[in-house]
Amino acid sequence: MITLYKTPPLWGLPSFSPACMKLETWFRMAKLNYQADTSLNFAIAPKGKIPFIEYQGKLIGDSTLIIEMLKSEAGIDLDANLTPTERAISLAFRRMIKENIYWGEAYIRYQVPENWQVYREALINILSAVVPAAECELIVADACETICTQLYNQGMGRHSDQEICQIITADFQALSDFLADKLFFMGEQPTTLDATAYAYVGNLIKPPLKHSIVDYVLQLKNLCQHYERMNQLFFSDLEV
Length: 240
Description:
alpha+beta; 4 strands
C-alpha cells in the first residue's frame, strides 16, 4: 500500500494542488493501490513540500521523480506505446505546463488581490482542521510571501498582468492546438501528459477565481472537454 500525502479536495477538484492532482490521477490511471493522507504534514515531507509518498518504508518527494521511480520499481509505464518522437513531445509539453503554466496559475492565486482574498480564506479553512487557529493566519501569510518571492525570482512576477496573460494563454493555446479533436493528447489512450494537463487545466478553470487567462481557457472547448472526460474516467467517485 502506498500512502499519498496530498492536499484535500476543493472546488470539485480531487486536489487544489495541481502537482498533487497530477500524481493522484497517474496513480489511478496506473491502477495503483494507495491511500490518501491530507493532514498536510510538511514536517516529514522529504523536500519540504507536497505531494510526497511513503513507499516500502521510504518517504519520497516530487511528483515527477515519484512517477519515474514507480516506472522503474513497479514496471509501470503509461507511455510505453509512444514512439521516441511522441515521448519527446510529451516531455516538452509536460515541462511547459510545470515550469511555465504553473507560475501563471500561482500568479492568479497569489498576486491578483481579489483572488488572493478568496484563496486565502480557502487555505485558512483547510488549515484550521489540522493546525491551531492562532497559527493559520501566520502560515498562510508566510506561504503568500514565499510564493510571491519565488514568482519574482523565477521571472513571471516581474511581468505586467497583460504580459503574463500573453505568455500563459499562448501555452494553453498550444495545448489546445495539439489536442485538436483527439480524445487524448497522444491518441486514443490517456498517457502521463493527460494526467498533467488535466490537473493544471482543472486547477485553472474550476476555482472561483477571476482572470482573463481563465476566461480564455474556458473558450478552448477541447481542453475543457478533455478535463471533463478525464474527470469522468478517473474521479467519478469524487464527492463535489
